[in-house]
């Protein structure tokens, strides 16, 4: 056994290297380095010695792990499991001893036992559909004689012509929380993280509205920036430097704008002093700024590099992308992480969609632009999902995306957050209420359920029940595949987490239109989203879905949820409508999956026919 393996600091470091999260985060940190060294690895050793610069024999140091520096594997940290398990690491069995001499890095091809490394591939197993409520002619009566409420029309045999959606009762397995909590969290700095951060912020309740008592001098960047105006902009920069959240957004707005003013000031100086070279004019503008800001020229130059990054983000993704970028944006701009790897293209793609989210969820966000005298008005009003986002241009009003159907009253859909009970059918009864179950206890985790976050102990679907609900980070988008609209995830949804509740009119007796079937054989109900509901009405089918419908009881009431099977940001949210649904639909499936089961079923170009629901 190596003598220092039990030293508490060394033990901690070994634990750290064993933690898969640490490895992943390190991977993401290192991913931005372009350089690769074939056939070598970096060994990370622990040595306890009197002075840091002492030379140490190999047998005095304990390898903690190594990083392969080969192409594409650069970032994998492979812990020294033998040390972790307190096994004696003899030089003959020591896996890292092979590294360097032979040019073979153990992390690249072998595991710690020297066996070839096999990639573990996880797979989603398609779930068998659970038992569903099917109504037959002889099942149940027409009315409840006690209440006089019509429960189900007995003369309707609905099953043969329904386009029914069913839900599952089994839960996609959630990722197990990692055992060790000792690893420090290195924040991966990837483009995905920045973009995801922007979307998360825009869907959070952050308050950005602010009022400005003092109006600034009117001027135009195009006609030039005088010394007095530039001094004023510099004053603003000074004022908003290093302040809190909404001031942080303000600060970035001012700084991105400062870069524009600085360029305009240089142009003005060159006009005023035609003998100046460009470099001289830049120096003059810089000096003017330093005078007001009270900074050294070097200091300002360093900061200016970050401010230029802010301006680039704003130029590509619009002001909203800068304003809703999290605190990580500073690091992004300081080290220019990912700027050359398509960050600006990514932002340009989402600029319009982000504006929809910002305008509808934070109507006051544009007030921040008053600080730089830009009085932009809101472009998108109403509910966030009343707009259909398009990759290449401004979002379209939802109604307009159904104009091809030439509906007599146009397309009308009211967005609501909760199900409504059809009182004509159910009276005061709620058919979703589970009989004989304790409404206070979760049927799944057996913990106490409460709408009050403090008393609630059920954490099955915390984004929907028992806590504060935030708007889901999803948008309607126009599909390119001919399915008309669909739902796109703007942030990732981890496997097993809820995306939304399937919300609509809780009714019974609808025939020939899309309905969700709920309840039991004795007490069935349908959820109909024909006129009212939420965005789940726009979720398309896929033969390889990334989400599923699932039943869940919240405080004794059955809810149908859309639960993720692992949805990545930017992907379409899809479910399996079921074989029986497709059997009754005169269309071909356009999911585009290699194993699609319902493509090319219909000879005519039936895919372009309106669906019954659309009609
Ligand atoms: C609940 S709506 C989904 C939203 C719909 N795409 C829209 O724009 O309103 C269901 C209808 O969408 C269409 N749809 C959904 N998934 C589809 C797929 N994979 N292929 C073709 N059409 C699909 C069918 O017309 C289906 O009847």
TrEMBL record:
- Per the record, the domain of life is Eukaryota
What segment(s) does the record annotate as region Disordered?
Answer: 108-128, 161-186
InterPro entries linked to this entry: Class_V-like_SAM-MTase (IPR053105), SET_dom (IPR001214), SET_dom_sf (IPR046341)
Among SUPFAM superfamilies, the record links this protein to: SET domain
Q: Where is the SET domain?
A: 472-578
For this entry, the protein name equals: SET domain-containing protein
What taxonomic lineage is listed for the species of origin? Eukaryota, Fungi, Dikarya, Ascomycota, Pezizomycotina
